[in-house]
Design goal:
Blueprint (H helix, E strand, L loop, with lengths): L4 E6 L2 H12 L12 E5 L4 E6 H7 L13 E5 L3 H8 L5 E8 L5 E6 L5 E6 L3
Parallel strand pairs: 1-3, 4-7
Antiparallel strand pairs: 2-3, 5-6, 6-7
Protein name: VOC family protein
InterPro entries: Glyas_Bleomycin-R_OHBP_Dase, Glyas_Fos-R_dOase_dom, MMCE/EMCE_epimerase, VOC_core
Organism: Amycolatopsis plumensis
Length: about 120
């Protein structure tokens, strides 16, 4: 089995796509040529973004946009503080400023435009 992607469902695909494009510093692709789905290909996997109308049409309305409160999307970065500075004007919901964790990581928490929780962390501090 191969892990392929995480798909986030949204009512505002352009805003969420712009957010993750800025966050990951990657250009979105639309592999199906439609305006209701986009992907961001990162080194570790794919962030797939789908409009809620597409989920209703193709996935039996199985997911609800902006309703997640149980998952944390995590990205390993070289320098948490540099990412904080880079994203300062783009992020509107900072949950935890860069913090040294007891197990040696440095991390910060923020939310995307739909409220999904994101952890940016670096190891070996």
């Amino acid at each position: 089995m191969k892990f392929a992607s995480v798909r986030l469902v949204t009512d505002d695909l352009p805003a969420l796509t712009a957010f993750y494009s800025t966050l990951t510093d990657t250009e979105p692709v639309t592999p199906f040529g439609s305006g209701d789905y986009a992907e961001l290909h990162t080194e570790g996997g794919i962030i797939a973004l789908a409009d809620s109308a597409a989920v209703k049409r193709f996935n039996n309305n199985a997911a609800v946009a902006a309703a997640n409160r149980s998952a944390i999307i995590e990205f390993e970065v070289d320098d948490v503080d540099a990412e904080r500075a880079r994203l300062g004007d783009q992020v509107t919901d900072w949950v935890q400023e860069p913090t040294d964790q007891p197990w040696g990581n440095r991390s910060m928490l923020l939310r995307d435009s739909d409220g999904n929780l994101i952890n940016l962390y670096s190891t070996g501090h």
